[in-house]
Amino acid sequence: MKKTFAFAAAALAVIATPAAAKDAPSVSVATADLDLTQSVDQEKLERRIENAARRACRLGGFDAETRRAERECRLAMAKNAAKKVELAIAAARSGRFALIKFDGNA
């Protein structure tokens, strides 16, 4: 059974117009090979989410303002994902399949 987590980089709206929030990229993180009842696999998921957020939030600039915007984007995505990851872990522990859509809403 294929399991993935998808989340949108809606935090990009921090540096763009409000219309950009709805155009934020969507990122999927594969979890089919993870057993979320195991702490080692939970850590793998966290690293995958961090890497996906880095890619999604990368703006390509090197100035201080761009770096700040990228950092805020990553932090917002991590905050958004945290609650949903907790739910997925709880569902895995209870033996239920969980497919969680990560979007810009907490």
Automatic annotation (TrEMBL):
InterPro entries found in the cross-reference section: UrcA_uranyl
Span of the signal peptide: 1-21
Keywords: Signal
Designated name of the protein: UrcA family protein
Entry superkingdom: Bacteria
Source species: Qipengyuania polymorpha
